[in-house]
Amino acid sequence: MRYRIAAVSAAALLTLAGATGIAEAKPDSLYAPSAVVLTLGQGENGATVVRASTLSCAPTAQGTHPDPKAACTALAATAGSLDTLLAAPDSTRVCPMIYDPVTVTADGVWQGRRVSWKHTFSNSCVMSATFNGNALFAF
After folding, report:
1. How far apart, in Å, do the first and last CA atoms of the chain sit?
2. In terms of DSSP bridges, do strands 102-110 and 113-121 run parallel, antiparallel, or are they unpaired?
3. Percentages of the chain per state (helix, strand, coil), in multiples of 5
4. pLDDT exceeding 90 applies to what percent of the chain?
5. Nearest 10 degrees: CA dihedral of 115, 121, 125, 127?
6. Nearest partner of 73 among 108, 32, 34, judged by Cα
7. pTM value?
8. In 3D, which of 93, 85, 94 has the Cα closest to residue 118?
9. Of residues 30 and 70, which shows the higher confidence score?
10. Which of 7, 27, 69, 97 has the greatest number of CB atoms lying within 10 Å of its CB?
11. DSSP secondary-structure letter at 89?
12. Distance set, CA 110 to CA 76, 94, 106 (Å)
């Protein structure tokens, strides 16, 4: 009889310990996820992806982007609103009036919020002048 009580008590303790372990589950990181896939495509809808790069910014800058630290800094400056990248074009740069559309996209998560952004430029020169040295799409 004594062994049965001990076995039942041990089983109850293991069950409680298991339930407690589940209740105390903790996230893998203290940082909200910040990871995006950046693409540059040929055409109005970017149907033909020419280049792509991955970027993860939390807890450290990493990915296939050639300069992830500068790209994460540029992304942080947008506060998740990538339209701000279009705000300061280089007005002194002259581009040809050739229509050869280029589309850039950013899809992923920025500080825990879903991001899906797309913009089409009339050509690559206009894109470069608009981004004005911004590192985010410099890949």
Report:
1. 73
2. antiparallel
3. 35, 25, 40
4. 65
5. -20
6. 34
7. 0.75
8. 85
9. 70
10. 69
11. -
12. 9, 33, 10
Per residue in 60-118, pLDDT (tens digit) is 999 999 999 999 999 999 988 999 999 889 999 999 999 999 999 999 999 999 999 99
Least confident among 4-8, 24-28, 65-69, 105-109: 4-8
- Tokens (6 digits) for 35: 């990871």
How long a stretch of residues is the chain? 139
Q: Which residues pair with 51 in a beta bridge?
A: 40
Decide if 97 contacts 70 (C-beta within 8 A): no
Instruction: Give the pairing type, strands 35-42 and 102-110.
Output: antiparallel
Other Cβ atoms less than 10 A from the Cβ of 116: the count is 10
> If residue 3 lies in a helix (H) or strand (E), which one and from where to where?
helix 2-23
Residue written as token pair 């797309």: 118
